[in-house]
From TrEMBL, chain B:
The gene is LOC107914813. GO terms for cellular component: cis-Golgi network; endoplasmic reticulum; endoplasmic reticulum membrane. GO terms for biological process: protein retention in ER lumen; protein transport; vesicle-mediated transport. Belongs to the ERD2 family. It comes from Gossypium hirsutum. InterPro entries: ER_ret_rcpt. The keyword Transmembrane applies. This is ER lumen protein-retaining receptor. Pfam families: ER_lumen_recept (PF00810). It is found in: Endoplasmic reticulum membrane. The chain crosses the membrane at residues 55-77, 98-115, 121-140, 152-170, 182-202. GO terms for molecular function: ER retention sequence binding.
Length: 10, 215
């Protein structure tokens, strides 16, 4: 699967 | 945000607070590896470059600023504070941490989600974070008497890593399109590095004796 791109983790 | 992620962020926050408490109130950084702290300062600086490009949430922004500010100030205290720097175990903290950075950078250039400056820096920060604890673990092995705050600092950091792994598992099964291979693999490597330390930590806790790691 493709990555969602959004990096909301720290 | 799920409970594992929140608990992970909170244990991460507490670990930093424990360290700052030790430095501020006891004016001591004995048993703390400056090498590891410098690596963390680099990790957060290179990972949070997106502070300027992407807004996610107020929580996200504040936490990023806290981790950036605390990691840089810890390094400053250990290097420059008149009293604190004298308690630094310089002769024991000999890990050549700069040698860890080059392989991490090369790996980030090869394996990244996209070949852009921000993405390569992001991947680099994850690879570097995975190994950043190594100088601290080496110092712990050399330091015969580990005080409670230092032990708790590493314990909280390890708990943060373990909770993030649970968070990824939870998100994988509950969110569509949630796939971050680079984060997962480097995160699992990092969590495994703590396992050895925890083994001895819990043994000493169980037997109610002071933590002593084998040479």
């Amino acid at each position: 699967a493709e990555s969602s791109g959004l990096k909301d983790e720290l | 945000m799920n409970i594992f992620r929140l608990a992970g962020d909170m244990t991460h926050l507490f670990s930093v607070l424990v360290l700052l408490l030790k430095i501020h109130t006891i004016k001591s950084c004995a048993g703390i590896s400056l090498k590891t702290q410098e690596l963390y300062a680099i990790v957060f600086t290179t990972r949070y470059l997106d502070l300027f490009t992407t807004y996610i949430s107020l929580y996200n922004t504040i936490m990023k600023l806290i981790f950036l500010g605390s990691s840089i100030s810890i390094v400053w205290y250990m290097r420059h504070h008149k009293v604190v720097r004298r308690s630094y175990d310089k002769d024991q903290d000999t890990f050549r941490h700069y040698l860890l950075m080059l392989p991490c950078l090369l790996l980030a250039l090869l394996i990244n989600e996209k070949f852009t400056f921000l993405e390569v820096m992001w991947a680099f920060s994850l690879y570097l974070e995975a190994v950043a604890i190594l100088p601290q673990l080496v110092l712990l092995q050399r330091t015969r008497n580990i005080d409670n705050l230092t032990g708790q600092y590493v314990l909280l950091l390890g708990a943060y890593r373990a909770l993030y792994v649970l968070n990824w598992i939870y998100r994988y099964f509950t969110e569509e399109n949630y796939v971050h291979w680079i984060t997962w693999v480097s995160g699992i490597v990092q969590t495994l590095l703590y396992a050895d330390f925890f083994y001895y930590y819990f043994q000493s806790w169980k037997n109610n004796v002071k933590l002593q790691l084998p040479a």
